[in-house]
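Final report, closing paragraph on structural work. Over the funding period we assembled a curated collection of sequence-structure pairs, and we close with a single example.
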Amino acid sequence: MRILVFFLVVLLITGCRDAVSGSYEFPMQINTFNKYNDPLGSSCKLYSSETRMEFTSPSKIRYQANCGPINIICKTGTLVGEYGYMPEAEEAINLIPF
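Its predicted structure, as stored:
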């Protein structure tokens, strides 16, 4: 059991290093909607391990990605949301480090 736990810890620590080398920039279109699928303008914040951004939606942003997840939280009036979906890419995405 100890060997398994040790292996999992090593895998978690080295996982990011092996998965991505360098930074990548992704254009992202951010839109917000209410539960009736009506578009809303809102104030949004993007959080990741190395990036903090504030922007209003709808907007197109350029996100510089490293290894790790991102969280986007948007607020308008009393409505706050952090759930969303990512549509499938219309074209193949070629990752080119810069």
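The longest helix spans residues 2-19. The chain has a mean pLDDT of 74. We thank the funder for supporting this effort.
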